[in-house]
Amino acid sequence: MCPVKQSRFGTLKKVSGKLRQMWHGRDVRSMSEPPLPRLLVVDDEESICFSMSEYFSLHGYKVDTACEIEEAEKLLGVTNYKVVIQDLRLTMTNNHDGLEMIRLIHEHSPQTRIIVLTAYGSAEIEDEARRCGADAFLRKPKPLSQVAQVVQGLIESPPKQAARPA
User: Fold this and answer.
1) What is the set of domains in the chain, with CATH numbers?
2) Sign of the C-alpha dihedral computed for residues 127, 132, 136 and 141 taken in this order
3) What is the dihedral of CA 103, 124, 160, 61, to 10 degrees?
């Protein structure tokens, strides 16, 4: 085996673009591309949080997840999200906590769009969720590609101008 001599700078040329950006001390993405849209997924089922996070991350979104209202509230306090995808039933004891979550989102970030994704929906609950400020109401199970279409549609459309009652 013949050893190949390379300078350490020659080796750097082969390193990925992200490491090169770190080497130069700046984030090239922020200079040339818009930031990734931020999503928050709130669901008490970890498998749903995981699968949605994986799917949307692969499709160009920055995704945070929360399994509890308290965790979601902390994230909402420090991050501006374009869209929140949330379940309606977040605990086994209270089936109205998702409605409270919608109110909480609008309190922290009125411009954030909200998608309710639930298996426990009815026409009455959907109406109530929309009155609270939900932009879309989807019933589980729903293919992630269809959820993504709704997310993209909400991001591209202007928010409702009418005041939302609490």
Assistant:
1) 33-156 (3.40.50.2300)
2) negative
3) 70
Report the length, in residues, of the chain. Answer: 166
Q: What is the pLDDT of residues 43-102, one digit of tens each?
A: 999 999 999 999 999 999 999 999 998 999 999 999 999 999 999 888 776 667 889 899
The CA-CA-CA angle for residues 75, 78, 80, to 5°, reads 85
Q: Which residues lie below 8 Å from residue 23, measured CB to CB, with a gap of 6+?
A: 12, 15
Under 8 Å between Cβ of 108 and 77: yes
User: Which has the closest alpha carbon to 128: 162, 106, 100?
Assistant: 100
Check: pTM over 0.85? Answer yes or no. Answer: no
